[in-house]
Design goal:
The structure holds two protein chains of two kinds. Chain A has two helices and five strands. In chain A, the strands form two sheets. A three-stranded antiparallel beta sheet of chain A has the order 4-1-5, with helices on one face. In chain A, strands 2-3 form a two-stranded antiparallel sheet. In chain A, a hairpin with an 8-residue loop joins β2 and β3. Classes of the chains: A alpha+beta, B alpha/beta. Chain A: Its cofactor is [3Fe-4S] cluster.
Amino acid sequence: MSDNLSVSLDGTRCKSYGICVSVMPDVFDTPPGSPTAVLLRDTVDADEREDLEEAARVCPAQAIALNSGPRP
Amino acid sequence: MTGGFERVVVVGASAAGLSAADGLREAGFTGSITVLGAELHQPYDRPTMSKALLVAEEDPQLLELRSPERIEANRLDLRLGHAAAGLDVDRRYVVTTYGEALPWDAVVIACGSRPREMRSLAGEVLPALRTPEDLRVLREAAARYGEMTMIGSGFIGLEVAAGLVARGVAVTVLDALPLPLEPVLGTELATHLRDLHTARGVRFRSAVAVASVTGQPGAYEVRLTDGSVHRTPFVLTGIGAEPAVDWLAGSGIEVTGGIVTDAAGRTNVPGVWAAGDVAAFHHPLLGQRVRVEHWTHAVEQGRHIGLNIARGETTPYQGVPYFWTDQYGMRFQCYGRRRAGDRSLVVEGSLDAGEFLVLFGHAGEFHAAFACGHVRSLRDYRKLLARGGTWDEALALARTNNPVLDTTVSCTDRKERTTHEAA
């Protein structure tokens, strides 16, 4: 298990609900006028894992994925 | 996993039920999981129906809640179109509407709720919005009549009103409450929300109840308790939802305003758990038994119960309630739950500016944070609510974000003051 987690956002599923932003405002943002949320960074530290997992679970569009280890 | 614990039946294939199945697998449960879904659709994202799909120009496409690949990877025996018809707690079977008897070692009841019914005098159930079929009927009616009446002004009703007005439909909202959502939002915010609607042409007839409805699509007459008659081509009811518990009659499961569970999600019958908005559970943060009808709650509590079952634990669930609602392109988000008598304080932005963060609390307790915009700040209040933080801690947090905050000013004062300034 790597210390770093990478996060990806599926732009085709994302409906810009923005729940992820209220859970992790440092990782997700919903810019005005953007049809989807955007990632402010695509890796998070191990101590942010719990919040990131929650953000992924509570996304109604199920558009957030977590990947352990370095990005391919 | 201890021997003899191999079969879990999940009743309900939406947010809570599928999340319970996820939780079971996440915690290492390797036995069978059968998920009963009353509807024939693949599990879909329900929140979007009263939001984006209502106003979509093209034919709405339901969004899958789980991909078939993920359902397969989790080894779920998902049975669509199969509802639970009964529960035998002695012989441990769930009986389905197909007459099957499914044996279980644990059951998660996550069958959700259904719209509270209102009938016309002729006995017809008046339209509501819960399923994709309801959505189709509503979209067709809006296009055909260009005019409709919403009975009830909860979140669904207001979202529908906002969506339809944006499409040029003339909308009247009838409600017994003086202000929409007042118990949830308090007087100031409820007034603000109503004003947003009236400014865009929604007509409210508040503080008046519906006595009877006659007619059919195309020509309804709604008789009100003040004696007046309201004519409309189409009505949509949004008067709350009731837990889907009829099938449990005589089962021995305790039902009082929902399936009664403890904080861990256990019912009065060993092995039977309940999750999501069918359950009335004791919430440690709220200090009372509640039925939380929010989407993220169904997801998080459902998973929590799955984890508890698989691990043989009875950990209480204490996630902070959260809801969001979309109206006129604005998104309102709330963590926690306002209680009657709470004071409200604007700590960021202002109601007039249309972006704000409001705190609710009473007697030193901090109960809720409600925001339009200011999402980044919400996170800190959410953390504070999760650990049972006090009003003073909430104010201290507010001051770090806004050092010149005047904490003596409520929503009302602030609104009046800006009005005076404007005058």
